[in-house]
Design a protein that fits this description.
heterodimer; A: mainly alpha; MetI-like fold; 10 helices; 0% strand; B: MetI-like fold; two-stranded antiparallel sheet; 2 strands; flat; transmembrane helix (chain A)
């Protein structure tokens, strides 16, 4: 009975949750603190500029509380219209293009070489950020909403294509086998076995992507791809904080409406 | 052959149809509406498009690539400092986001909120509002207020992260196992002790997972914040774009792509180890 030799512990220490070894804990913590010191040390802050900025910050908050919708209403409404139409058209075209690509990228219904090509397109679209794509399209197609439309379409293909392909790979195989047993062609197989199973999710994803595309359309305008982002950029570089506040409030309101509506639609089709 | 047969009093169609006439009609109306809407939106959107530039795009693309290739690799030497800045923006921004989001998440979760009527809606509103503004817009604002530099980038990333981390964390807090909390309560623990020993250990792995995931997204976002003056590698991108130095742009884009792939790999490995 060696166990009794050990006195009953009077104290309890919380056991470590993630890293069990004491040495590794010490190494990780020292590394993290060292990195933090170096990182914070490399941030140069011009405090006099920040102090000047505080006054501007107050003006901005003032502009946000008393937004000025009227003075620049023409610019705001053109930008907004451009953003909304860009969002709608790019979502429609993007979804239309990502359906064949998503079908091709599903391992269970596409031949290997088509699978690889479609996965390649999706990977390329997902690896590049919208802003960088927008810079390129603006350089190629000139300033304006058309470049923005192409950017959002390209980004939509990667998003919907990937999720649709994964959904098709997860379908109930017994249904497609039943359709195949009737002697259906590939098109009939897709139409009667695959499409009914993935349609609700595709509708939900499209609604979600519409929402994302609107947010992004507010951003890509900064690099000249049209939309409300350009208007916001102009307002801020003119230091017109009351107009900028109005634009931001409109963006937040539309994003919230889109989010609510797409959430509602997704619950409806589920 | 007729379209229907009658057995007794019931009429059956002999040809199977995918949809009832009513749904088919509704679908047709829906598609007609979508097409009309699309054409209308398309006309509005392209009203100010200069088609000359669009038709010229293949030539412009050829021109662009012939200028951009081969990339100017010597330029890479000047990019390590901006890259370090970009990673600093992402890491410190994520930290700021965590510091702001954790109290908000505990206020927003229905089982830990101190006041259901006042603080919870307030916290939920802050979480939604910060999430709906893109970090680039935050950066645009903060650069105009604080002046260009890393600080604006860090705060922009931090603010954008608050909503993301806050939302996922408060959902994790609401999903905690009530049995463990009851067991801790039964020992006579105070509110703070319940939080510390009942809830925190349960959400800690999720919390680390969310933080690393957000860090990974923030690396992507901080790479482009420099376009509006918030420091990091995006500032070099903007400078090179302004002087149309396409070989340098190519190097920067490849470096950003490489960094994004590495950070994605790191975050996937860490999250796989946590779960």
């Amino acid at each position: 009975m060696t166990e009794t030799a050990k006195p009953y512990p009077g104290q309890w220490r919380r056991p470590p949750q993630l890293v069990q070894s004491r040495m590794w804990r010490i190494i990780l913590w020292t590394g993290a603190i060292l990195y933090l010191v170096l990182a914070i040390g490399s941030v140069e802050v011009n405090w006099t500029r920040v102090m000047d900025g505080l006054e501007r910050g107050q003006r901005f908050i003032g502009g946000f509380l008393q937004p000025d919708f009227t003075t620049r209403w023409r610019d705001i409404s053109t930008g907004l219209m451009e953003s909304l139409t860009m969002t709608f058209t790019s979502t429609v075209v993007g979804v239309a293009l990502s359906v064949p690509i998503g079908l091709g990228a599903a391992r269970n219904i596409a031949p290997r070489w088509i699978y690889l090509i479609c996965r390649g397109i999706i990977a390329a679209s997902r690896a590049l950020q919208e802003i960088i794509v927008a810079i390129f399209f603006v350089a190629l197609f000139g300033f304006g909403a058309f470049a923005g439309f192409l950017t959002l379409t390209f980004a939509t293909i990667g998003f919907i294509g990937k999720l649709l392909a994964e959904d098709i790979e997860d379908i109930d195989e017994s249904q497609s086998e039943a359709i195949r047993a009737t002697g259906a062609s590939w098109l009939q197989l897709v139409n009667y076995a695959v499409q009914p199973q993935v349609m609700p999710r595709l509708i939900g994803l499209s609604a979600y992507r519409f929402d994302i595309n609107f947010r992004e359309s507010a951003v890509i305008g900064i690099v000249g791809a049209g939309g409300i982002g350009g208007t916001l950029n102009t307002a801020l570089s003119r230091y017109e904080y009351d107009s900028a506040g109005a634009i931001l409030l409109i963006i937040i309101a539309i994003v919230m409406i889109c989010e609510y509506a797409s959430g509602h639609l997704r619950r409806l089709v589920k | 052959m007729t379209d229907s047969v009658t057995t007794g009093s019931v009429t059956h169609a002999t040809i199977w149809r995918h949809r009832t006439p009513r749904t088919a009609l509704l679908l047709w109306v829906f598609w007609a509406f979508m097409v009309g809407m699309f054409v209308w939106c398309w006309n509005l959107m392209t009203a100010r498009t200069m088609w000359v530039f669009v038709y010229d795009a293949p030539r412009a693309a050829q021109d662009l690539f012939s200028r951009a290739l081969p990339p100017r690799w010597e330029y890479l030497g000047q990019l390590w400092q901006p890259l370090w800045d970009t990673i600093s923006i992402a890491t410190l921004g994520t930290l700021l986001g965590i510091i702001l989001a954790v109290p908000l998440a505990f206020m927003a979760a229905s089982n830990t909120t101190p006041s259901r009527l006042v603080l919870r809606p307030f916290a939920l509103f802050l979480i939604v509002a910060t999430r709906s503004i893109n970090s680039l817009i935050w950066a645009l604002l903060l650069v105009s207020i604080l002046g260009p530099g890393l600080l604006a980038g860090i705060i922009a990333i931090g603010f954008r992260s608050v909503g993301f981390i806050g939302k996922l964390l408060y959902e994790a807090i609401e999903e905690t196992d009530i049995n463990q909390i009851e067991a801790v309560t039964a020992t006579g623990a105070s509110k703070a002790q319940i939080l510390n020993y009942g809830i925190v250990p349960q959400v800690l792995p999720t919390f680390y997972g969310i933080s690393v995931f957000r860090w990974d997204i923030n690396i992507r976002e901080s790479a482009i914040l420099g376009l509006v003056g918030a420091g990091g590698i995006g500032a070099q991108l903007q400078a090179s774009l302004n002087v149309l130095a396409w070989p340098q742009v190519a190097v920067i884009l490849l470096l950003i792509l490489g960094t994004v792939l590495v950070s994605e790999w790191v975050s996937a490995r860490v999250r796989a180890a946590l779960i």
